[in-house]
Specification:
Helix content: 10-25%
Number of strands: 8
Order of helices and strands: EEHEEHEEEHE
Number of domains: 1
Number of helices: 3
Largest sheet: 6 strands, mixed
Strand content: 25-35%
Radius of gyration: 16 Å
Distance between the termini: 29 Å
Oligomer: single chain
Shape: globular
Length: 174
């Protein structure tokens, strides 16, 4: 399978676009919204914990973008199929777009494709989802407690998801 590589382009009118090396043209916010609608995307936020020193400390966040195959076809496929891969690739494009591009005191990690379905909670009808997770950690001291920079980055990412019509824990328009 081709490796997905993407980057950021700022157009002459100041709009931010994302492109991928899969031969796609620059993606605008409208194209990203279409991805969101096509895959019924929603997101979840989870804490990241460390047990270093014998005590649980919240050290970061994980944002999971959850989506389904186009037209809900996951009911008839198999986990890790080519449709799962293309769904992951499109969700990853959204993940890269919402991730802050300027260097900060925190670090962002986008998880690799795990070739699995994740069964959603009953509120999402236990649908078979493909998930892309973005983790937000401290750049220099991984075991330090969550700070304002991490919270600010999480809030910025939530705002960008909101701009694309992505809701927390529920999907809209599907």
């Amino acid at each position: 399978m081709d490796q997905l590589r993407s980057g950021e382009v700022t157009t002459t009118n100041g709009q931010r676009s994302v492109y991928s090396s899969a031969g796609e043209a620059a993606l605008t916010s409208e194209a990203l919204r279409n991805i969101v609608l096509r895959h019924c995307v929603c997101y979840e936020v989870w804490p990241e914990w460390s047990g270093n020193g014998g005590r649980a400390t919240r050290i970061g966040f994980a944002i999971s973008l959850c989506g389904i195959h186009e037209n809900g076809s996951a009911r008839y496929g198999a986990p890790g199929c080519s449709r799962c891969w293309s769904t992951y690739a499109e969700l990853r494009t959204v993940a890269e777009w919402i991730t802050p591009q300027t260097e900060r005191a925190c670090l962002f990690e986008i998880a690799a494709f795990d070739r699995a379905w994740h069964v959603a909670p009953n509120a999402r009808h236990a649908r078979n989802e493909i998930v892309v997770t973005i983790k937000i950690f401290h750049r220099h001291n991984i075991d330090a407690a969550v700070d304002d920079c991490q919270q600010e980055c999480l809030n910025e990412m939530r705002q960008k998801l909101s701009e694309l019509g992505v809701r927390e824990n529920v999907w809209a328009g599907c």
